Amino acid sequence: MTTFADTTFTPPELIRNFCIIAHIDHGKSTLADRMLQLTGVVEARAMRAQYLDRMDIERERGITIKAQNVRLPWQVNGQDHVLHMIDTPGHVDFTYEVSRALEACEGAVLLVDAAQGIEAQTLANLYLAMENDLTIIPVLNKIDLPAADPDKYAKEIAHIVGCEPDDVLRVSAKTGLGVEALLDEVVKLVPPPVGAADSPARAMIFDSVYDTYRGVVTYIRVVDGKITPRERIKMMSTGATHEILEVGIVSPEPKPSQGLGVGEVGYLITGVKDVRQSKVGDTVTSERKGATEPLAGYREPRPMVYSGLYPVDGSDYPELREALDKLQLNDAALTYEPETSAALGFGFRCGFLGLLHLEITRDRLEREYGLDLISTAPNVVYRVVMEDGTEHVVTNPSDWPEGKRAEVYEPVTKCTIIAPSDYIGAIMELCQGKRGQLGGMDYLSEDRVELRYTMPLGEIIFDFFDSLKSRTRGYASLDYEEAGEQDAELVKVDILLQGETVDAFSAIVHKDYAYAYGTRMATRLRELIPRQQFEVPIQAAIGARVIARETIRAIRKDVLAKCYGGDITRKRKLLEKQKEGKKRMKMVGRVEVPQEAFVAALSTDEPKGKK
């Protein structure tokens, strides 16, 4: 086995940088495992499935969340080459991880399941790769499955990529069939990196993670010059300077080296404890005689979905703040700011890229930091223009401005849905019910169709994906990207318990769906809140107008139990006395809402905008 950790620099013409683009469960991590085994960088006894997926949550769910890079030695015709492979996530919520990986590569392996065909999210990542002028190597995986139909899907991929069906490679990542040929093809087709070895050093940061013992570990791709240990470097966007303590390669465990040259991918450690000082997309250069022009960076990931995270036990608030601080170091797309709720106490308003991102973040906070959390119903960012011309940005229903509103703008997205043509009617019905507008429709093959819709983001983030899957028996796939904003008739629905607004249950919905949301929430709370000693009205209201009402009946104590026979006036006197007590109780009593009721009422099992 050849290791390159000891050599000083590898000539750029022997380097190939590539990433793997694939949908969830199309065999991306399995293919990476086979490559690690074939190139000999992982010994057989140390091998485990999904080797590059480091988090327990990735292994359990079978998804990749963080892009991982690894250096592989490979020989073609007796010549040693160095392959840098980046294993990227497949889910739409982690597209920002993919876009960063694409900047560090010259080629991409498009991996498609031979039993399912290309999916919408893979298509979106493929277009990203094409925009970056990457060399695409189309590959069909799982050809050993009985349900595989490689000829049919090879035609479909050839139609999209613009190649011949025979050019599509066929492999089985599970058995290792065709993986060697794929690596040879990578060496043959992917162009070597281009850069000036004698120019001032320029390297792009494409990822950074936090290590408890060593501080920030920054992953870089060197474009020009070289990066060596013990030299002082400068971050071009922040101007911060540091001394490099260690430079190395990842193969697949970190190995220190004497430096990184043009086209090489590796890591550097400066001992800094604050990840914000090594921003993803920044350019690293030498402090003395450094470069003057930074490399084109990435656009900052913008949160699409907001949700409040509150600790069940209020005393855990400092622990939650510390946990979010640490998690943000490993996840550049997570944003948060403190907020308070009258019902839930102190917590944080967090911004996420999508529902899966929210779910994974909450899961990691509970698992890795031992917290017990309540998350409020997710909502998107609205822009409200008042009649006097003032503007408000609303990320939380409690920020909804009072007074006369001239216009309300909501974010819209461009959705791409790929599904068998039998389900076109069901998909169109669902999208129109969610205020979608059809933008176009294309047949990828005789029985697979691509539909393009413009839809409000607020309609997608609840249960749209689940409804789409159930209507198409799991065959449809969805991808969406932001597409500006539109004017919409939106209202804020408040839930009142005994006349008092409970801010945690408020929501911003379209006028047509307000009644359905109010009725469902009132009915749900009636079942969840325990009965009190007095009658409790639950109301849903838009401003001062009540649109739905349910009542929790009082628990009535039997005051006549001690009366056996006797005069009716005696009984009436006792009942009147009870009635007076109930009236007084109703005035001073506050409704106790148990924690379980919040958790159950805020869970998004049911759609918000169901008609």
TrEMBL record:
PROSITE patterns: G_TR_1, G_TR_2. It is a peripheral membrane protein. Pfam families: EFG_C, GTP_EFTU, GTP_EFTU_D2, LepA_C. GO terms for molecular function: GTP binding; GTPase activity; ribosome binding; translation elongation factor activity. Its main location: membrane. CDD domains: EF4_II (cd03699), EF4_III (cd16260), LepA (cd01890), lepA_C (cd03709). One of its GO terms (cellular component) is plasma membrane. GO terms for biological process: positive regulation of translation. It is found in: Cell membrane. It is an enzyme of class 3 (hydrolase). GTP binds at D25, H26, G27, K28, S29, T30, N141, K142, I143, D144. Its EC number is 3.6.5.n1. Keywords: Cell membrane, GTP-binding, Hydrolase, Membrane, Nucleotide-binding, Protein biosynthesis. The keyword Cell membrane applies. It catalyses: GTP + H2O = GDP + phosphate + H(+). InterPro entries: EF-4 (IPR006297), EFG_III/V (IPR035647), EFG_V-like (IPR000640), EFTu-like_2 (IPR004161), G_TR_CS (IPR031157), LepA_C_sf (IPR038363), LepA_CTD (IPR013842), LepA_IV (IPR035654). Residues 13-194 form the Tr-type G domain. Belongs to the GTP-binding elongation factor family. LepA subfamily. Required for accurate and efficient protein synthesis under certain stress conditions. May act as a fidelity factor of the translation reaction, by catalyzing a one-codon backward translocation of tRNAs on improperly translocated ribosomes. Back-translocation proceeds from a post-translocation (POST) complex to a pre-translocation (PRE) complex, thus giving elongation factor G a second chance to translocate the tRNAs correctly. Binds to ribosomes in a GTP-dependent manner. HAMAP family: LepA. This is Elongation factor 4. It comes from Lentzea jiangxiensis. The lineage of its organism: Bacteria, Bacillati, Actinomycetota, Actinomycetes, Pseudonocardiales.
